[in-house]
From TrEMBL:
One annotated GO biological process: cell-cell adhesion
Protein's recorded name: PKP2 protein
Ranges of biased composition (kind: Basic and acidic residues): 94-107
Region described as Disordered: 75-109
Gene coding for it: Pkp2
CC per GO annotation: adherens junction; cytoplasm; intercalated disc; nucleus; plasma membrane
Naturally occurring in which organism (per UniProt): Callaeas wilsoni
Amino acid sequence: RNMSSAGPEGRKKMRECEGLIDSLVYYIQGAIADHEPNDKATENCVCILHNLSYQLELELPESYVQSIYMQRRNVPSSDKTPGCFGTRSRKVKEKQQDTPLPEEKSNPKGVESLWHSTLIRIYLSLIAKSTRNYTQEASLGALQNLTAGTGPMPFAVARTVVQKANGLPGIRAMLHVGHPAVKKTAVSLLRNLSRNTSLQSDIARDVLPDLVSILSECVPGSDIACETTASICYTLFNLTQGSSHNARLLLSAQGLPKVIAISMNDSNMFSKASRAASVLLYSLWSHTDLHSAYKK
């Protein structure tokens, strides 16, 4: 667990270690099957996988990237979609955001397991069943890592979490736990998920009222609470920017007075939260059909 946080070279060596990732996944599966999601070894395993998933798409070996890309080059010419992990270009990645991953292997090995739906479902299971804060935080953090970035992998993982594995109820529950780091990581994961336009209606319906409910009535009093507040505001920005319906949801959840209060604080410590709230307010005002409701 300590070695997995040693930096890019350490992560690379551990991902390449034959059988290591498979063994970690196997152990966690056994713990869940035996109804033992709270033991210390399971926590350690999940924390290792969390660290090994950090910057995964950027750090995959180029040979691995190219082999997946070559598999995708034989698609019909009418399909203009670039291959999975095909290029590191940001513009191409933005075009790829709705590109599905190549068909999943039924029996993934090694690094392939890190973004496989089997492990995604394991993380969601631990989020729902474990009462150990570090296990919850590491499971949420692994999913946060996997949904970061603009390539096809993050968006495919996001679809699995939201639509295929019905992960939103478990993530929503983590918004209301007392542990600040768990809450912060849950919000950061939702912020990543909310960038995917095809998932925004599902996310708004299931968790937007909860996000508003955990917003402080005033400016938060600690760094971690300030970061959480900023992430909530940016998540709400993603959900409402292109949807007047979602903006109305925020309004009906009594979110506007909270966002205004946060935006009006200009102390240096809380500038991140205040700036995020101001960005959200500016975006909400772009829905001209809601101006009369806002004024009321």
